[in-house]
Amino acid sequence: MSAIFDGRRDGLAEALHAAALSDDALLERVQAVGPRGVYLARSFLTGRIPTELQVADDHAQLLDDPERWWQATVHAGRRLSRARGALPVRAASGLVVDVTDTASSPYTTGIQRVARELVRAWSEVEPLELVVWRRLTGELLRADEGEAERAGGSSAGGPRVQLVPVGARLILPEIAVDRDRAQRLASIARFGADASLAVGFDCIPITTAETTGPGMPGAFARYLSGLARFDVVAAISRAAATEFAGWARMLPSAGLRAPRVIDVELPITPLQSLPETEGAVRAALGIGERPVVLVVGSHEPRKNHLTVLAAFENAWRSGHDFAAVLVGGNSWKAEEFTAFATRLREAGRPLVLASNVPDERVAALYRLARASVFCSLNEGFGLPVAESLAVGTPVVTADFGSQRDIGEGRGAVLVDPRSMSAIEDAVVALLTDDAFHARLVAETRGLEPGSWERYASAIRSGLGA
């Protein structure tokens, strides 16, 4: 058997690795441990993490005919070992961080930025086991060097091996909407982890399902079913904590122990900008010397960019001269937004659409903007609100939820995001009323600076680390 035990001592895990005991002795130990023994045996012998349903089914077979179950499991392991080219199986008993999505993409969504900052901060204080799932196989793999670098932990990658969490501390800093991944994470949280924590971003696909993409509400429900086995959900804002707490209160009625929901708010920190002048940024975007109103975020319906564009158009028609810069990629159902933006540009409006913009350039735009606008219909946090205020740029944002929590009294104009006229009035006031603008800039100085290091430490504290 090609396997190495690493970390905390576990009698059964060591016995499965050592191959020094007879099959009868190993089977006896598995029987003594029960469902967790089934999880360990199937994981180590086959290299696949079983789902809870598979563990329950295997345990029933073990009770019914132990010898037959053992021989079938050993045979499956040998067959899969040949198929996978004898990739080593290794136990993981330290801090295990699932970065499957973040490790596969060079781009930065809000969720991926949080995951990368957490990995970067954690990797500076303790060894990490960054892991990724091989889709539909149940194989949990150590992140290779490229994946680790994309996930923010350049020093945390290593040779490709299959991993079995044993007494691990499991953290999920992203969402897992893939059915297979969610089910196997639930199994690890129940059988392979001493402690488990998921960062809770929001419950938008449940609370405002109409604003999400096709299939997302169902996929998110599967993610929540996996999350139900975790010990802790660390919500990124007070609003997100309210949503997750509501979900958690429903679980006991289904006979499930609810995770503990804690509020660990994301830090308000400025993005690091490029050493380039304001003139260089303006020249690159072709916006001349006009005042800039900045909008950051993808163009999905929930971000409400159609209403924001309508407010800008009304302000332009009223004679106000400013450049609107929208930074973000297209998303599902963006066709109407794209068509409207195209008409505005063809009419000569100073509207710039930019995608795949590096964080450093976005930071420069926040600093040169007269104001920013982020009027989402629902947000777990609202990073663009925090990022704008962190550099002293007033923001027009929604008057409820996390956007209000971040912005109220800190340099934000709070409006009804569904009211085009309210957004227009706020933008025009920030463009034309210098005293009003200066008062909001002064309010931003009351922000308490945060840091990703302190946030990462608070997350680990929530895990009991």
Characterize the structure shown:
This protein is an alpha/beta fold. The protein has 3 domains: 83 residues, no CATH class; 184 residues, Rossmann fold; 167 residues, 3-Layer(aba) Sandwich (Rossmann fold), CATH 3.40.50. The chain is built from 20 helices and 16 strands. The strands form 3 sheets. The chain has a 7-stranded mixed beta sheet, sandwiched between helices. α14 links the parallel β12 and β13. The chain is elongated. The N terminus is likely disordered. GO terms for molecular function: glycosyltransferase activity. This is Glycosyltransferase family 4 protein. InterPro entries: Glyco_trans_1. It holds the Pfam family Glycos_transf_1. It comes from Protaetiibacter larvae.
Total of helices? 20
Poorly predicted spans: 1-9
Which shape, going by the Cα principal axes? elongated
Can you name the CATH architecture of the largest domain?
Answer: 3-Layer(aba) Sandwich
Under CATH at level 1, the class of the largest domain stands as Alpha Beta
Average pLDDT taken over every residue: 90
Distance between the termini: 33 Å
Q: In CATH terms, what is the fold-level topology of the largest domain?
A: Rossmann fold
Approximately how much beta-strand content do the residues carry?
15-25%
